[in-house]
Amino acid sequence: MGVSLKDVAQRAGVSIKTVSNVVNNYQHVTPAMRAKVQQAIDELGYRPNLTARHLRKGRTGIIALAVPEFGNPYFAELAGAVIDAAARHDYTVLVDHTAGLREKELLVSQGFRSHVIDGLILSPIHLETEDLMARTETAPLVLLGEREYEAPYDHIAIDNVAAARAAVRHLVGQGRRRIAFLGSRTGRERQPAHLRLRGWREELSAAGITPDESLVVVTDGYGREDGAAGMAQLLDRDARPDAVFAYNDLIAIGAMRTLTERGLRIPEDVAVVGFDDIEESRYTTITLTTIAPDKEAIARLAVDSLVEQLKGTPVAEPRRPRPGYRLVVRESTTHGPGAGPIEDL
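Given the sequence above, the corresponding C-alpha cells read:
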C-alpha cells in the first residue's frame, strides 16, 4: 500500500487537515509547521494522488496542446516548455497534431476529446476569426501563434513586426543593403509571414533603403527544402542579395545549403538571419543568427491563462500578452568574438 495523508500526519505529529493544507499549498500554515510536514513527506516518500484531486474538482487533470507540425523543431521545443509549465500546476499535457489542416484544427477547437481534457492550447494556421466565434465548446481555450484574431480568447504571441525589424536592423547595421526576404506567402495578410514581411519593409524604409520586391521569395512551405529551393530561385534570377532574412530557421538553414553549393561565402558574400532559435541553429556548420522567441514565457503565459480559467477566475476581456524575444548573433552574420546575444526586446 502507498503512503497516505494519515501516515504523514502520524510521522509529523499533526492533524490530517494540517498535512492536507501543506500538500495543497494553502497559505495559512506557519513556516515551521510547513517544514515539519514536508520533512515527514520526504522521509516517507509520500506522493499526492493527483488524479483523485482533480476528479474531486470535476477535472481530468489533463490539458491538450494542438500544434501544426511535429517535424518543425520549434513546436517540439515549445511542447516541452508547455509540459514543464503544466507540471508546475499538476497538469498532464496531451499533445495533438493537426498537420496544419483546417479540418483538424476545427475538430480540436470544437471539442474533440473534450471528455478527457480540461482545456486546450491551440496553435492554428488556417482557422479564421469566424471559426472561433462559432465555437460552442465550453472548455477553456488559449491561442498561440502569430496569426491575428478578433475572437474572445486569450492569445499569446510575440510582436512579429518588431522582431522582424530587429533582424533587418542588424543586417543594415552590418552594412547590408540588398536584403532578401525568404518565405513569403500568398493570401491572408495577417499570417505571420506577412507580418514579418511588413517588418522587413518598414525597417528598410526607416533606414532609407527602398524595399526591392524582387528580393521577396514565396515558398511552398516552411522547411529546409523550401529554403534551399527558394534561395536557388532567387540566385537564378541573377539578383543576388547581400543578405537574407528568412521566415524561420529551417528556411534559413536550407538557404545556407544552397549558398554553399553555389560557392558563396557566409557571411562574407551573403549574411543570413533566421527566426525561432531552434537547437539546430546552434550546431550548423556555420551557426545561425536568429530571432529567439521566449518559448518558456510563451508556455508559462498560456498554461497560466488556462489554469486561471479553470479556476473560474473572471476575465474582463481577452488578453493579448506579448512575450519577449532576443536577437542572437552568430556566425551567419558575424565571424569571431562579436557573436552572441546582443539585443533583448
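The mean pLDDT is 87. Try to locate this feature in the C-alpha cell string yourself.
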